[in-house]
C-alpha cells in the first residue's frame, strides 16, 4: 500500500486525490495501519477499522451519557444502543464508515460539558483532541460539531452550574482543538480547492435533493434511522433528566433546526418536493466551502445520540426510582427492538467478503506485465449502472474512469480514445466502423491502455452485436469475456 490519500487505480494516468473525494479519513488510516502492522489483506484491514470505529462509537456514547449524569449502567446501555442505531449500522454496512464512527463526536461533546462544569481537570484536552479527531473522522461531522457545540454551550450556560473559571477552560479546549486540527484542515482545504470549486454547491442542488431526508420514510421506515422506541423515549427526556431541562430545551431547538436542514432544498414526506416548499438548506448550498455539503440527510445524525440518551435516561430514572423490573424489561425491549430493526433493514453486521466468481475477469489481472483497462462505451449513466467498479475489484488493474463524483475524480477515458476513430465510434458513432490501424494500436499502448473491454448492454441503440463484431474483426477473438456482460481484448496479443 502506498499513500493512502491518493489512488493510481482510478483516473489513469495520474490517479486521483482521495483527500478531496473522501468524506472522512480516519477509517482509511486505521485500515492501512492494520494492514501494515499485521500483514492483513485490504478487506480484513477495512473490517478491522470498521470494528474499531464501532467500538469507539460505544465508548463515545458511554462518555456522553456520563457527562449528562447517567449512572454507569445506563451510560453503558447508551453506548450499546448507539452501536445498534439504524443510521450507524446502515452507514457501516453501506460502505460509508465515516458516518458510523460517532466516537470522536460524542467524546468532544462530553469533553465540552465536563469543561464547562469542571468535572474533570483534563476535560479541555479531551474535548479539544476529540474535536480535532472528529474532523479527521469526517469533515461533515466536524462542521456538525461546530453547530452542536454552540447549542450545548448556550444550553449549559442557560442551565447554570458552570464552574467559576469555565471561560478559561473553554479557551483551553478551543486552543487545543484548533492547534490539533489546523494542519489537517489546512491540508484538506488546500488539496480539495485544487480539484473542486469553492462555490460548486450551487450547481448541485438536484444532487442535494436526492440526498435529503424524506420525513415520512424516516419516521416510519425500516432502518437508516434511530431505533423507533428510542425516538419515542425522547418525549420522556424532561422527566428522565429533570436537572437538565434547560439544556435539553436548547438541544431540542438545535435538533429541530438540523431536521429543517436535513429535509433538503425540496422537502418531502414520501417523495422529494411533495411538501411544496423550498427548504433553507438551499441557501447553504450557495455558501463557499459549505456548499460542498450536499447530503442534507446526514444533518439528522443528532437524533441518533439524543434518542439513545433518552432511552438510557428513562431506564435509569425507573431503576433509581425502585422500578427495577420495569427498567430491566424496558432496556431489554429497546435493545431487542433495535436488533430486530437492523436485521429487517438488512444492516445487521455480517462477516465475510466475497466477489463474484468470474475467472474470465480475473485472468486479465493474472496476465504478466503492466497495463490499464479501458472500459467502453464511455458512458455517464450514473453510479449504479457501471460494471467497471466491480470488474476492477477482480482484475485489479488501473482504469481511466470512475462514475463516482466525476467533478472531483475526472473520467480520463475521453483522453484515452482521442484520435482512435474505432473506439470513438463505439461510444458515439453511427454507420460503418472505422478502420483500426497498427498506429492506433501503438497509440493506445503508449498511453498505457493495454486492455480494452466492452459492456454490451451499455452500447447505445442496440448496436452491441455490431460493436463486438467490429472489434473482433480488428483484433481477433477476445481473450476473455462474459457475453452481454463484459468482453475484453489484450492489445499486446494479436487475436485478443
What does this molecule look like?
- The chain is mainly alpha-helical.
- The protein folds into two domains: 339 residues, no CATH class; 132 residues, no CATH class.
- The chain is 56% helix and 5% strand.
- It contains 23 helices and six strands.
- The strands form two sheets. The chain has a four-stranded mixed beta sheet, sandwiched between helices. Strands 1-2 form a two-stranded antiparallel sheet.
- A hairpin with a 3-residue loop joins β5 and β6.
- α3 runs parallel beside α6.
- The protein is elongated.
- The model has no long low-confidence stretch (mean pLDDT 89).
Topology record:
Layout: E1 6-7, E2 16-17, H1 18-21, H2 26-38, H3 42-67, H4 72-83, H5 86-93, H6 103-117, H7 123-137, H8 139-159, H9 166-193, H10 205-210, H11 215-220, H12 228-233, H13 237-240, H14 245-262, H15 281-285, H16 302-320, H17 324-344, H18 359-366, E3 372-376, H19 388-395, H20 413-417, H21 421-428, H22 438-446, E4 449-454, H23 464-475, E5 480-482, E6 486-490
Parallel strand pairs: 3-4
Antiparallel strand pairs: 1-2, 4-6, 5-6
Helix pairs in contact: 2-3, 3-4, 3-6, 4-16, 6-7, 6-8, 6-9, 7-8, 7-9, 8-14, 16-17
Largest sheet: 4 strands, mixed
How helical, in percent, are the residues? 55-70%
Strand order of the largest sheet: 3-4-6-5
What's the helix-strand series?
Answer: EEHHHHHHHHHHHHHHHHHHEHHHHEHEE
Number of domains: 2
The first-to-last residue Cα distance is: 31 Å
Mean pLDDT level: 89
Number of strands: 6
* Count of individual helical segments: 23
| Estimated share of beta-strand residues | under 5%
Q: Overall 3D geometry?
A: elongated
Rg over alpha carbons:
26 Å
Runs with pLDDT <50, length 5+?
A: none
The secondary structure category is: mainly alpha
Amino acid at each position: 500500500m502506498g499513500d493512502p490519500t491518493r489512488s493510481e487505480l482510478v483516473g489513469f494516468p495520474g490517479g486521483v486525490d482521495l483527500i478531496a473525494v473522501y468524506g472522512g479519513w480516519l477509517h482509511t488510516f486505521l485500515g492501512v495501519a492494520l494492514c501494515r502492522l499485521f500483514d492483513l489483506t485490504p478487506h480484513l484491514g477495512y473490517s478491522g477499522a470498521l470494528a474499531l470505529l464501532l467500538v469507539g462509537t460505544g465508548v463515545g456514547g458511554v462518555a456522553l451519557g456520563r457527562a449528562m449524569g447517567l449512572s454507569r449502567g445506563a451510560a453503558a446501555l447508551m453506548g450499546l444502543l448507539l452501536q445498534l442505531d439504524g443510521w450507524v449500522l446502515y452507514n457501516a454496512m453501506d460502505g460509508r464508515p465515516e458516518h458510523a464512527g460517532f466516537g470522536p463526536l460524542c467524546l468532544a461533546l462530553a469533553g465540552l460539558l465536563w469543561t464547562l462544569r469542571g468535572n474533570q481537570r483534563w476535560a479541555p484536552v479531551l474535548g479539544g483532541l476529540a474535536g480535532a479527531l472528529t474532523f479527521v473522522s469526517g469533515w461533515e461531522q466536524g462542521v456538525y460539531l461546530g453547530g452542536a457545540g454552540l447549542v450545548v454551550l448556550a444550553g449549559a450556560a442557560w442551565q447554570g452550574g458552570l464552574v467559576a473559571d469555565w471561560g478559561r477552560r473553554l479557551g483551553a479546549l478551543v486552543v487545543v482543538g484548533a492547534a490539533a486540527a489546523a494542519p489537517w484542515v489546512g491540508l484538506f482545504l488546500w488539496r480539495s480547492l485544487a480539484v473542486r470549486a469553492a462555490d460548486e454547491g450551487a450547481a448541485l442542488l438536484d444532487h442535494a435533493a436526492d440526498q435529503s431526508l424524506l420525513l415520512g420514510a424516516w419516521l416510519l421506515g425500516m432502518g437508516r434511522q434511530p431505533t423507533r422506541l428510542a425516538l419515542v423515549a425522547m418525549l420522556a427526556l424532561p422527566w428522565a433528566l429533570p436537572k437538565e431541562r434547560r439544556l435539553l430545551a436548547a438541544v431540542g431547538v438545535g435538533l429541530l433546526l438540523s431536521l429543517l436542514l436535513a429535509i433538503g432544498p425540496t422537502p418531502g414526506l414520501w417523495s422529494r418536493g411533495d411538501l411544496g416548499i423550498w427548504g433553507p438548506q438551499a441557501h447553504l448550498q450557495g455558501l463557499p466551502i459549505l456548499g460542498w455539503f450536499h447530503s442534507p440527510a446526514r444533518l439528522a445524525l443528532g437524533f441518533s445520540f439524543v434518542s439513545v440518551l433518552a432511552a438510557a435516561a428513562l431506564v435509569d430514572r425507573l431503576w433509581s426510582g425502585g422500578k427495577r423490573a420495569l427498567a430491566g424489561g424496558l432496556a431489554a425491549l429497546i435493545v431487542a427492538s433495535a436488533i430486530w430493526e437492523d436485521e429487517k433493514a438488512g444492516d445487521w453486521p455480517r462477516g465475510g467478503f466475497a466477489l463474484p466468481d468470474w475467472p474470465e475477469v480475473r485472468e486479465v489481472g493474472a496476465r504478466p506485465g503492466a497495463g490499464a483497462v479501458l472500459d467502453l462505451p464511455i458512458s455517464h449513466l450514473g453510479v449504479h449502472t457501471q460494471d467497471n467498479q466491480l470488474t476492477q475489484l477482480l482484475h485489479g488493474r488501473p482504469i481511466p474512469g470512475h462514475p463516482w463524483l466525476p467533478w472531483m475524480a475526472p473520467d480520463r477515458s475521453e483522453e484515452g480514445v482521442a484520435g482512435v476513430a474505432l473506439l470513438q465510434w463505439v461510444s458515439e458513432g453511427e454507420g460503418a466502423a472505422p478502420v483500426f490501424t497498427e498506429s492506433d494500436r501503438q497509440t493506445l499502448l503508449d498511453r498505457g491502455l493495454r486492455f480494452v473491454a466492452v459492456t454490451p448492454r451499455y452500447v447505445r441503440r442496440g448496436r452491441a452485436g455490431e460493436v463486438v463484431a467490429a472489434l473482433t474483426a480488428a483484433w481477433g477473438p477476445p481473450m476473455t469475456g462474459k457475453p452481454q456482460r463484459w468482453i475484453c481484448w489484450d492489445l499486446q496479443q494479436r487475436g485478443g
